[in-house]
Specification:
Number of domains of chain A: 1
Number of strands of chain A: 1
Radius of gyration of chain A: 17 Å
Number of domains of chain B: 2
Number of strands of chain B: 1
Largest sheet of chain B: none
Order of helices and strands of chain A: EHHHHHH
Helix content of chain A: 55-70%
Shape of chain A: globular
Number of helices of chain A: 6
Distance between the termini of chain A: 22 Å
Strand content of chain B: under 5%
Shape of chain B: globular
Structural class of chain A: mainly alpha
Largest interface: A-B, 110 and 118 residues
Distance between the termini of chain B: 34 Å
Oligomer: heterodimer
Chain lengths: ~140, ~140
């Protein structure tokens, strides 16, 4: 394992992390809810009456961030190296997997670990492990595209 | 009035989350893959995003656990499921494969819709279909 010092951004990433934590804190302390994106989106895919508006408003805020950053000319590059077919397969896996596993990086990885939930710690270790293995297969094993 | 304040705060939480993801580098799939690339040239930045986020939220959840109602008077919903079952592990494993393949997890993918890049829309549509199928099969624990 070699560290990519040229692209390693500990200060910006820590600042980003603090903001993500602030958003999760606002959600639980003011709204009483866990800020888990897959679950918030999932509630729109199979909507229940009276449980829709806050989800749309939160996700609108989320989408506004890159729009605002682009208007200000501050949006960093979005480099997508996966092919369209890979993106479709990946999207299906992420959607199916996060629904089945009841959470993603925000719900399990941030909020779940912060509350020391054994389920979320297990989930996070699992998706980190298969994520690392997948990157190895795609980029280093000679099997990937 | 109270209703409006609540709505604004929901919007701001989403916005702050999105700005955090951008600062953290998580809206760039190539950087996310760099973080998962333990066996190549590893970029540990995203560990700092998660670390920073967990430290702040840890304090918030400690506060939340001692309360029944949120500051806006809503019931605090913390599920207390303890069981680690096959669905949790299998679902997370499949999610990780998709994450490693694309460099996108749900939060940054939805935020990146704001860039207007068509590939992001392709990913998010597939994500919605995948989640719908799993929901349809009613496989979830809760």
């Amino acid at each position: 394992m070699t560290i990519d010092w040229a692209h390693f951004t500990p200060l910006w990433s820590s600042l980003g992390g603090l903001l993500v934590g602030l958003a999760a804190s606002i959600f639980i302390l003011f709204h009483g809810r866990i800020m888990g994106v897959s679950g918030i989106l999932g509630g729109l895919i199979r909507p229940l009456k009276g449980d829709i508006a806050w989800r749309i408003i939160f996700l609108s805020g989320l989408i506004s961030a890159p729009i605002g950053a682009q208007v200000l000319g501050l949006m960093p590059a979005v480099e997508i190296n996966a092919s369209p077919i890979q993106l479709i397969i990946a999207g299906l896996l992420v959607g199916f997997g996060t629904n089945l596993g009841s959470g993603c990086t925000s719900g399990h990885g941030v909020c779940g670990i912060a509350r020391l939930s054994p389920r979320s710690i297990t989930a996070t270790l699992t998706f980190m492990a298969t994520g690392v293995m997948t990157v190895w297969v795609v980029h280093h094993s000679g099997f990937g595209g | 009035m109270n209703h409006l304040v609540r709505r604004i705060s929901e919007y701001l939480a989403g916005l702050i989350f999105g700005v955090g993801l951008i600062f953290g580098g998580m809206t760039n799939p190539s950087k996310v893959i760099g973080f998962l690339d333990f066996f190549g040239v590893w970029d540990p930045s995203l560990a700092f995003v998660m670390g920073g986020a967990v430290i702040i939220s840890f304090l918030a959840f400690r506060g939340a656990k001692q309360r029944e109602f949120s500051l806006f008077g809503r019931v605090i919903m913390l599920d207390d499921l303890k069981s680690i079952d096959l669905r949790l592990v299998l679902g997370s494993a499949l999610f990780g494969i998709g994450w490693g393949l694309s460099g996108f997890c749900p939060g940054p993918a939805i935020a990146s819709l704001g860039t207007g890049e068509w590939k992001v829309f392709l990913f998010v549509i597939a994500l919605i279909i995948g989640s719908w199928v799993a929901g349809r099969l009613q496989l979830r624990t809760h």
